[in-house]
Amino acid sequence: MAVPGTQRTVPATILAPIYSRMVSHFDNQIMPAHKPYPTFALAAADVLKYLHNRYGFGLWMVTRTEENDWIVLHAEDHGYGVKPGAVFRWADSFCSQMVIGRGPCIAPRSDDVPAYAAAPIGSQVQIGAYVGIPLKDADGELFGTLCAIDPLPQSDELIKEQHAIELIGRLLSTCLVAELKSSAEARSDLRLDVSRLVDRESGALSQAGWEQYAAAEEIRCQKFGHPATLLSLKVPSDQEWPLREVVSAVSKVLTADEVIARVEGKSELLALLPESDSGAGKLALAKVEEALKAFPGIVVKAVSRDPRRGIQAAVEELLGSENQGERPV
């Protein structure tokens, strides 16, 4: 990933330690029996393999729902061609109907369930049977689902397995909550680390600080399906607002884990707001605009990270087509 104001990519020496802190080196190894899973990713992968071996089905997934995006975090695919990172419309899915009680968690013949028979995803891929279990976060809110589909109807005996699959889903949620907590703590620690890397003129994060923080957040987004909002603040060329004063005003309305950085060599700033969906992004934009009333003429824009494209694409969109490729995150 790159930085505001340069064409270079992030050096491996920066990315490697960030990645190693966030993703255990055990991720590509086979875990010995009876040892705890060091990461949610490993636990999810083994759970999906077990469920496929135990119950069949052409596709088992762990997913994240974020607004109307349905993001595949982990997949055990045997025929559908679905890979981690794929994004579908949440409203089209069987899972969106299941979590609001319009369909059962287990449907051996999904066409017999009106809500599933009418779901748009059924016209996109062949589905004869469905399993879906909600995954919850620490507050008991919906994070995503543990789910499965198969092109062929299955035996009604599968319904007897609902309690076992629900138990597995609850255990996965427990692993997830623990890792989300440690991930949030790692973000806060990194925020403190990069706070020492500042641009002297503006007081905003420097190039190096932005690189490290944005690269780590992109990994987090890919791992957990987190949203993010990015803001750009452009001081018009005919204004002489001191950047340090602008940064100070904006910083007062940002949270502890939200950062602001200077686009190198420009009178332009970027802000990254982790775990901020479109609604939170609109509120943040309004707060920033209010904070900048003493600086008329500054143009503020906001864009949400697209899970298909990442933070870099959001930055390029904010900074304009003429700058695309020059300041990757």
Automatic annotation (TrEMBL):
This is GAF domain-containing protein. Pfam families: GAF (PF01590). It comes from the Bacteria. InterPro entries: GAF (IPR003018). Residues 88-166 form the GAF domain. The lineage of its organism: Bacteria, Pseudomonadati, Planctomycetota, Planctomycetia, Pirellulales.
